[in-house]
Amino acid sequence: TPLALAQAAHQPRFPGLNRNLGADGKNMLVLGMSGVAVAHPSALAKPATWGHFVLDPRRALAWTWWLPIIGALGALWCLFMRLTGLRWQPAAALAAALVLAPYSVGFSFWPAYLVMFAALGLLALDRLLHAPRTAAGLAWGAALGWSAAGYALVLYPAWQISLAWLCAPLALAWAWRERARWHWRLPQTLGAALALLVASALLAAWWLDAREAVAVIQDTVYPGRRVSEAGGDIDRWFLLKGWLNPFT
């Protein structure tokens, strides 16, 4: 909240480098999760910040808070109906159960924000592969590329990698199940190319102005040079922690 308000109070508004924060200023492009409003092309892939460009601060903060909840609920609702054939009522209940899970609530619905991009990406991939016309292929390809860029710019690998391990095999399994119903033709080729172009353009624009700040982060003790408790080195019995409780 303070950083979001600091962006609106800066002159000029919504800078990439906020000179009112810290001795040398702060690069606002490297803030993860929902981020803050920055007058930059990469803001197109940060929908939680859009309200700050057109609304007063009070309503803009409300936009930032509610968009992950409503966006994830809608995206998952559509995805569940599309991939499973569920009626809208149980699909809505499942979507709400995921978005309102304690883990999601405990982290201020930031996990739901990431899930929103993943669900939209899977839905866009589904529609792209079934697109019968070029216009539809391009539209769903653009949505796929936008979702991929938004997913990447959440900037929290602990969640991004974990969720990708779920989404990638899910997408492959679904595509295999649907293989008789979709065919790779011109709409799919053009849509895939546009998806790659949109994602690459948004991420490249972000990287060009954020790479120096990323280099500084990489050179810090935490998280850049963290050498202890990095994970992957625990004993196998530890996987049963909480089930057998060997400590007691």
Q: How many helix segments?
A: 9
Helicity range:
55-70%
Q: In percent terms, what proportion of residues is strand?
A: under 5%
**Main β-sheet description:** 2 strands, antiparallel
Sequence of strands across the biggest β-sheet: 1-2
Assembly type of the chains comes to single chain
Distance between the termini: 43 Å
Please tell me what the overall shape is. globular
Q: Radius of gyration from the CA trace?
A: 20 Å
Task: Describe the fold and architecture.
- This protein is mostly helical and 248 residues long.
- Helices cover 60% and strands 2% of the residues.
- It has helices at residues 2-9, 51-54, 57-84, 88-99, 102-106, 110-129, 134-152, 157-177, 186-218, and strands at residues 17-18, 26-27.
- It has a two-stranded antiparallel ribbon.
- Helix 3 packs across helix 6, helix 6 (110-129) packs antiparallel against helix 7 (134-152) and helix 6 packs parallel to helix 8.
- The longest helix has 33 residues, at 186-218.
- It is globular and about 60 Å long.
- The model has no long low-confidence stretch (mean pLDDT 91).
Can you summarize this structure?
Strand 1 (17-18) and strand 2 form a beta hairpin. It contains nine helices and two strands.
Chart the SSEs and their pairings:
Elements: H1 2-9, E1 17-18, E2 26-27, H2 51-54, H3 57-84, H4 88-99, H5 102-106, H6 110-129, H7 134-152, H8 157-177, H9 186-218
List descriptors.
mainly alpha, 248 residues, single chain
